[in-house]
Every structure is written in structure tokens, then in C-alpha cells.
Amino acid sequence: MNMLHRLLPLRALALCAAALALSGCETLRPRVDVAQPTAVRPSAATYAPISNGSLFQSAAYRPLYESHRARMVGDIITITISEKITAKTETSSTLEKKGSVSSEITAVPLANVAQLAKLGAAGSSNNKFDGRGTTSANNNFTGSITATVIEVLPNGHLIVSGEKQIGLAKSVDVLRFSGQIDPYSIQPGNTVASTEVANVRIEQMGRGANQDAQQIGWLAHFFLSISPF
Description:
By secondary structure, the chain is an alpha+beta fold. The chain is built from 4 helices and 6 strands, in the order αβαβββββαα.
């Protein structure tokens, strides 16, 4: 008995540790698969060969009317984020089922006919179900972020990725963006709309006291996970 009493606190401690571990798994925030790294440094420039006296040097060539659009690894580009997602779903279903049954006894050997008139059975059933549901969602996301070209694909498309962090009142707002850009979609001023970017990944999240205040505690997570309601 003494050994059993000693094991009870250990079992309770083990159960609490298991609940804490499970609740920790549930509080993990979903992450968006943003291309990493969100910044890249351009490679060091190669030294030009010794001049041979010609006015044209291929190593130092720069087009006279060169556009300032991003086109190389390390170049930056401004993304104008304007995303709007609207969805609406309506469902309606109706189910009705009716049934009836009746029976009557008219003749039984050695029985009075007057008494048989009282014998019989009847039954009916009526089931009806009518269900309706409507779901709607409307999400708007606007803003801007300056991203860095981290890769140039063989077809000339640019893989860009960027991150913005703003700290205010003991909280940090983080915005991450990545996607694939066709250079022909880049507008004057070296900007491009997010609607012109392929494979867009946008993540907006916060860290700090304000974000922690919106999280459910681990004990509440535990009871919600086992609650049947």
C-alpha cells in the first residue's frame, strides 16, 4: 500500500506532463511555405581583364538605355499586394418518407363473427427532414513589400522573396512574401501587382504580448480536446 501511495503522485505528474506536451502540439501556428531565404546577397563582382586599348570592353558593358527593372539575383522589386477572396456556398436538402400498414381478421374457425370485427391492426409513419445551410467568406489583404530576387529561372522568370518586420508596443508584426514573376509584368518604377505573380505565398503573423493574449491556454486546450460538445 505504501508503494501504491508513492506511485500515485508520479502518475499524476506524468499525466500532467503528457497533457502539456499534447497541448503544446496543438498551439503550433500554421505556417505558409514561403521561399527561403527571404534575402540574398549578390555574388562578388569579377574583376575586368586588363584593357587592350579598345573602347568597347565586354566585361564592363552596360546598355545605354538599360531599364532599371529587376533582372538579376540580388535586385530588389516592390510588390503591391492586393488580394481579395470571396466564397459563398449554399446547400439545401429535403427528405420525406411516408408509410402505412393495416390488417383485418374476417374469419377464424369456431369464433363469433361479431367479435372478429374488433380484431385488427393499423399503423402509419411519416418522416420529414428539411435542412439548409449557407457559408460565406470575404477576405481582403492589401499592402506593399519590397522583395529580393533570389533566383533566375532558365526561362527568365524571377523567384522573389521578402520579409518585413515592424516592432510596436512590445509586439512584432511580420509579413513574408514569395512568388514567381515574369519580367514583362514589371511596371515602371520597378513595381508589380501581386495578382501578376505566380505561386504566391503570403504570410502575416504577429509575435509578442498582443499575440499571446489571443492564444488559448494549454489547460483550456486540453479540456477542449476531450470535450464531446
